[in-house]
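Summary for the steering committee. One of the milestones for this cycle was to obtain a three-dimensional model of the protein with S-adenosylmethionine bound, which we needed before selecting residues for the alanine scan. The sequence and ligand used are listed below.
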Amino acid sequence: MDAREAALLTLNTCQRQGGWSDGALKKQLAAGGLEGREAALATQLCFGVVQNQLLLDFYLSKFSNIPLRRMESKVVQALRLGLYQMLFLSRIPQSAAVNSSVELTRTHCKNPRAPGMVNAILRSLQRNLNQLPTIPQNDPAEYLSILYSHPVWLVEELLPLLGSEGTAEYLQANNSQPPITAMVNTTKATTQQVAQLLAEQGVEVASHPWLEDCLILNKTGNLERLDAYQQGLFYVQDPASRLMALASGAAPGMRVLDVCAAPGGKSFAAAIQMENQGEVISCDLHPHKKKLIQAGADRLGLSIIKPMTADGKVRREEWVSAFDLVLVDAPCSGLGVIRKKPDIRYKDPEPLADLPQVQEAILENAAGYVKTGGVLMYSTCTIVPRENGEIVAAFLKKHPEFVREAFILPGPAGEVSEGEITLWPQVHQTDGFFICKLRKVGETP
Ligand SMILES: C[S@@+](CC[C@H](N)C(=O)[O-])C[C@H]1O[C@@H](n2cnc3c(N)ncnc32)[C@H](O)[C@@H]1O
């Protein structure tokens, strides 16, 4: 199996079964025994097609007599792969892009006429690459939707928030490849020691420009096989999540509750900040996720983390007013992590409508666990106000005993004087993320 075949099979699985491309690709690479450059190419092809799917389909449909929706899924994926390479990967000769897609169609598609059709469509596109049809600009949302391959409903939601230039910048940032950021487990080693160990194993390592104890990694190969990973000297996390822990003020000796904890990233960040002194109770609704948190904590040697299965909406009397710090990293639409999970954009938006209700209920219940004088953090990895600022505003209306508290972050975010911030990939070079810090200044009424 080569990179293109792995990409085709992954894209086809995701299209037909609705899975996530990152997970499906990982399985496909393992099944096909792909490593190194072939694995990197398969990843680029797979993510590139997903990131540009609406644009690719716009052009393909102009050059095909048959609507794409009436073609076999693998034929559509072969067409997308061929055109993606021609438009975005100038290092690949165009003839190789066309021929490989024709070959994939011959090997994997049922219809004997499919290879001829794929050849004809891609050759015709190749001849017209310098004069492709223009995307209509009369409707700004539709234009940006096609140009940057995001659904119209999302673009329509962003335009009033960011304006057309800001929206375009955000959508473009979503189609970029974020760096791998490794957070050093400073309870076990210094950043310099970890950087050296990684470099000795051939990883390209650089310091993060503004986040302490964070390394940017390149050429990791299978990261989980690295000695530094196996020894629990780092974990992979976006800077936004670390910023949430920094804003929270988690400190040694505190009693902390992480209400929505799996797979454990915020708990790990807090426990490391606490120098593994104190207690972090890390809960998640789903029983199978408890093991995931425990495995991460064990690998990192963070003994203060106590994983539990618990529903964040259901009150536990023994926890009332018992914690210095409560983290609510709420289940959300994930629209801030499109860079890492490019297919989030194509998921059905209908179930997202119920999320604010769940978020409100979890925040409401979690607030009861904060001691007077303690801190309640609310965060999500999304950028839409209805899951972020609007949740906090509604909560504060009912809870005068809580107030927003200013905090200072390293990097472009700087001082957050209003106590809440939305981080954006195009501005802060992080995932899209929301952080709000609330201090309980009075007794529960
Ligand atoms: C955004 S993720 C948390 C990410 C985690 N804090 C981290 O940094 O790794 C939200 C989590 O909330 C969990 N969840 C959903 N509903 C919940 C509920 N009612 N109570 C507790 N956890 C819930 C989900 O299983 C999911 O793991």
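Key point for the committee: The mean pLDDT is 95.
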